[in-house]
Amino acid sequence: MSQKILVIDDEEILTKTFARLLEKKGYDVLVASRAEDAIAMAEEEDFSLVLCDVRMPGQNGIETAKQIRTLRQSQGKGDIPIIFLTGYADDKLEAEAQKLEPVGYVFKPFDAAHLLDLIHSNLPA
């Protein structure tokens, strides 16, 4: 069975890039461009990992990740690995993101091999 990864990013070209890259490696990928869509998907699907942009219009990725984790807890599911993505160095946001204990914090533009290694090493067996 394929592992499901939720990609949350408001940049369409990046979500397409992530989806293609991950699908070539055999992962099942769902994409959301807004926090609301990501949360709705998390209500219906059981993901193995979340890749989430920190800065998005409306609700930021950190709050979105918190909501997804809270939702999973309410559904009796375990914690989920989160990798935050960002194109901006922002110490305040990074400190806030670190409170969620993400498995990674990747800066854009990203190194595909590094990202794939990070994903693979943090997926449940």
Radius of gyration: 13 Å
Query: Which stretches of 5+ consecutive residues score pLDDT under 50?
Result: none
Structural class: alpha/beta
| Helix content class | 40-55%
Tally of separate helices:
5
Features:
125 residues, alpha/beta, five-stranded parallel β-sheet, 19% strand
Notes on the protein architecture:
The termini are close together. The longest helix has 14 residues, at 61-74. The protein is α/β, with parallel strands linked by helices. Helix 2 runs parallel beside helix 3. The chain has a five-stranded parallel sheet, with helices on both faces. 45% of the residues lie in helices and 19% in strands.
Write the layout of secondary structure elements.
Blueprint: E1 4-8, H1 12-24, E2 28-32, H2 35-44, E3 49-53, H3 61-74, E4 82-86, H4 91-98, E5 104-107, H5 112-122
Parallel strand pairs: 1-2, 1-3, 3-4, 4-5
Helix pairs in contact: 2-3
Précis, in short:
With 125 residues, the protein is α/β, with parallel strands linked by helices.
